[in-house]
Design brief:
globular; 76 residues
């Protein structure tokens, strides 16, 4: 199996997510979003709607939040 590098994005809002996505979009077909709620960890990065310009790209979420099941149900 060939190893792949999955870039990670931390963004506070949709505008920041879009800007950071533009910087990495050509380097991978998959990327990771770090999702933080300021309860499980001190930082917060959940104020965006996960609207991706390119639906062919896949993403995974690194959930650093107090209630991950609730977040998944809300964002599925």
């Amino acid at each position: 199996m060939k190893p792949i590098i999955v870039p990670s994005i931390i963004a506070k809002n949709q505008k920041e997510l879009d800007k950071r996505y533009e910087r990495i979009k050509d380097y991978s077909n998959k990327f990771q979003l770090d999702v933080m709620d300021s309860k499980f960890v001190k930082n917060s990065s959940i104020n965006f709607n996960f609207s991706m310009p390119n639906k062919k790209k896949k993403f995974e979420a690194h959930l650093m939040i107090k209630n991950p099941k609730k977040w998944v149900e809300k964002n599925s």
